[in-house]
């Protein structure tokens, strides 16, 4: 286990010393919401940049509102605690930071307090375009959670149990990961990442009302694709369109850009990561590292 200090209920502690009550709603029922934030080391500038904090905090507040807990902190405090946690560990490399708000104490699934938070960083290297590997996906037999039963718009720990069913099934059947269909039979997303495909030179992604998380990477890639002159359509996606696509990839703060080179054993395009996928990854890595200062509004220097 990586030795690191985390922010836990207002104090910096060794991660192994952070304890929660086994009877807490977070422990018993997964009553927590979280964000996974990436920070990238820019070697030339000798600086560590956090990516799109503002959007992550907005989504954290939305998740709190929807799941019915009060976030005890504002954006300024969240930023301050995040910086404190990273500084105390003195990272000079790419990291991922988990910020989790949870219901502590000895309560039930309907408890609304006490609300606590932890902030835990972990080293995580970026995906290098030159060593990009395509993964195999299957269409899961498990349906994606949906807005009227278990809203995927909320980034709740418990949502990932749906992802788990799909992921374990995919692995059992010899695939790397699942792609979920929604209640209406349309394509939604992966277990922890949103989906794009390329057809006839256009980039296509399901709408935000297609049982998906309101992904920050998805929104970033929509902006970046305009910069490289690629048209984006946001619309419903059929399963069979994936089989016919020239390129398919998943995206997320953790996944960055993950090419999918087969779906249900049907080869996608050339069977290798596609050209648009690779150029978007280059563009994305430039943006997250604040290359050329063009992406100042998306990045915040930690040190
Ligand atoms: N969908 C799901 C289910 C996810 O867990 C994630 C990762 N947070 C994403 C999409 C991508 O979201 P983001 O780009 O904001 O990380």
Outline the secondary-structure elements.
Elements: E1 5-8, E2 11-14, H1 25-29, E3 32-42, E4 47-51, H2 53-67, H3 75-89, E5 95-103, E6 115-123, E7 135-143, H4 160-172, E8 177-181, E9 187-190, E10 194-199, E11 202-205, H5 216-227, E12 232-234, H6 239-244, E13 247-252, E14 256-263, E15 266-267, H7 275-288, E16 299-301
Parallel strand pairs: 7-8, 7-14, 11-12
Antiparallel strand pairs: 1-2, 1-6, 3-4, 3-5, 4-16, 5-6, 8-9, 10-11, 10-13, 13-14, 14-15
4'-deoxy-4'-aminopyridoxal-5'-phosphate binds at residues 36, 189, 192-194, 213, 215-218, 252-254.
| Structural domain count | 2
Strand portion, in percent?
25-35%
Average pLDDT works out at: 97
- How far the N terminus sits from the C terminus, by CA atoms, comes to 26 Å
What is the name of the CATH topology of the largest domain?
D-amino Acid Aminotransferase, Chain A, domain 2
Shape: globular
- CA radius of gyration: 19 Å
Q: What can be said about the biggest beta sheet?
A: 9 strands, mixed
Number of helices: 7
Question: Any idea of the CATH class of the largest domain?
Answer: Alpha Beta
- Give the fraction of residues assigned to helices: 25-40%
- Strands, count: 16
N-to-C order of helices and strands: EEHEEHHEEEHEEEEHEHEEEHE
Which compounds are bound in this model?
4'-deoxy-4'-aminopyridoxal-5'-phosphate
Reported CATH architecture of the largest domain: Alpha-Beta Barrel
Low-confidence spans: none
Estimated structural class: alpha+beta
* CATH evolutionary superfamily of the largest domain: D-amino Acid Aminotransferase, subunit A, domain 2
């Amino acid at each position: 286990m990586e030795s690191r200090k985390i922010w836990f209920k207002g104090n910096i502690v060794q991660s192994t010393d952070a304890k929660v009550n086994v009877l807490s709603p977070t422990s018993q029922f997964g009553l927590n919401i979280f964000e996974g934030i990436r920070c990238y080391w820019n070697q030339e500038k000798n600086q560590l940049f956090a990516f799109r904090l503002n959007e992550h905090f907005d989504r954290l507040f939305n998740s709190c509102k929807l799941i019915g807990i009060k976030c005890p902190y504002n954006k300024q405090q969240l930023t301050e605690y995040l910086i404190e946690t990273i500084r105390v560990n003195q990272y000079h490399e790419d990291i991922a930071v988990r910020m989790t708000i949870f219901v502590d104490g000895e309560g039930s699934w309907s408890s609304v307090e006490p609300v606590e938070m932890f902030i835990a960083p972990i080293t995580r290297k970026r995906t290098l375009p030159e060593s990009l590997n395509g993964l195999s996906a299957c269409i899961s037999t498990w349906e994606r959670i949906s807005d009227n039963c278990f809203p995927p718009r909320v980034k709740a720990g418990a949502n990932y149990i749906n992802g788990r069913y799909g992921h374990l099934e995919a692995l059992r059947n010899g695939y790397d990961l699942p792609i979920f269909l929604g209640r209406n039979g349309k394509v939604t997303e992966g277990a922890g990442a949103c989906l794009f495909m390329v057809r006839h030179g256009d980039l296509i992604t399901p709408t935000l009302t297609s049982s998906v998380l309101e992904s920050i990477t998805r929104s970033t890639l929509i902006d970046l694709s305009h910069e490289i002159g690629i048209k984006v359509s946001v619309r419903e996606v059929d399963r069979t369109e994936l089989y016919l696509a020239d390129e398919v990839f998943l995206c997320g703060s953790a996944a960055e850009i993950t090419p999918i080179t087969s779906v249900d054993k049907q080869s996608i395009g050339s069977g290798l990561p596609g050209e648009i996928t690779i150029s978007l990854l280059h563009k994305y890595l430039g943006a997250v590292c604040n290359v050329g200062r063009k992406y100042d509004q998306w990045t915040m220097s930690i040190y």
